[in-house]
Amino acid sequence: MLLSVRAVEKSFETSEGPQPVLRGISFDLDGGRTLALTGESGSGKSTLLHLVAGLDVPDAGMIEVEGWDIAQMSDATRAALRRNAVGLIFQQFNLIPSLSVIDNLTFHARLADRDPGDVRGLADRLGLADHLHRFPEQLSGGQQQRVAIGRTLVARPRLVLADEPTGNLDEATGDAMMGLMRDMVAETGAGLLMVTHSERLAGMLDARLHLRAGQVA
Ligand SMILES: Nc1ncnc2c1ncn2[C@@H]1O[C@H](COP(=O)(O)OP(=O)(O)OP(=O)(O)O)[C@@H](O)[C@H]1O
């Protein structure tokens, strides 16, 4: 199993005491499969994604990526897992401002010890062929979002975690990016866990995990 989540609990301290946000979440995700994470605002989607990404640790329960329990890892091992096995597409694009589009793509492949392969072909599929030598600040928000998607895919992670990855794109471009992500998942055998508020996009994925008040509904 690529990703196993079992009985995960997470609370945050607030002025009124601990506020439970995730209350016993369990699910599995196989390689080559795509899973939509849906639920109303505040239901715990981003919190769950952060835990799976190893950016935070659960209070109870277990999260295994390829059989490795991320809560038991040292910070250094967790960082290495994030670098090599897990690809994050979050709302902050975190592009490197001093690198052009093509260099941003290539750099991330090398960071993950991957041969970047056909970067120009990928840029083409991202609709960025005419912007290869631009710097992030010279791109629109949607173009930056596509670089962020490409940057993650070029590293060929085992697990792709995405938070509204097409949120800044028009419907046609968003659908094209969804198609690209699904193709890459199918080609590389990676798993995709994607937060979305869109029923339409959720319907394009293999399965859905719907959260309601911190539980699987
Ligand atoms: N660091 C934190 N400290 C305290 N409370 C937090 C923290 N992070 C999240 N929360 C609370 O946890 C709950 C779930 O937040 P989360 O961001 O996971 O929801 P979400 O489903 O992703 O929402 P949205 O769709 O609006 O992004 C919210 O009530 C939020 O206020």
Tell me about this structure.
The protein has seven helices and ten strands. The chain is α/β, with parallel strands linked by helices and 217 residues long. A six-stranded mixed β-sheet has the order 6-7-8-3-9-10, sandwiched between helices. Strand 9 and strand 10 (215-216) form a beta hairpin. Helix 3 (101-111) runs parallel beside helix 5 (141-154). It is globular and about 50 Å long. The model has no long low-confidence stretch (mean pLDDT 93). It comes from Jannaschia donghaensis. Pfam families: ABC_tran (PF00005). Keywords: ATP-binding, Nucleotide-binding, Transport.
Give the second-level CATH assignment, the architecture: 3-Layer(aba) Sandwich
Broad structural category: alpha/beta
What's the CATH first level?
Alpha Beta
Oligomer: single chain
Strand content: 25-35%
User: Count of helical segments?
Assistant: 7
Q: Write the CATH fold name.
A: Rossmann fold
Instruction: Report the uncertain regions.
Output: none
Give helix % range.
Answer: 25-40%
- Rounded to the nearest angstrom, the distance between the terminal CA atoms is 23 Å
Small molecules in complex:
adenosine-5'-triphosphate
* β-strand number: 10
Order of the strands making up the biggest sheet: 6-7-8-3-9-10
CATH homologous superfamily placement: P-loop containing nucleotide triphosphate hydrolases
Largest β sheet strand count, sense and barrel closure: 6 strands, mixed
Mean pLDDT: 93
Question: What string, H for helix and E for strand, traces the elements in order?
Answer: EEEHEEHEHHHEHEHEE
Question: What sort of overall outline do the alpha carbons produce when their principal axes are compared?
Answer: globular
Computed over alpha carbons, the radius of gyration is 17 Å
The domain count comes to: 1
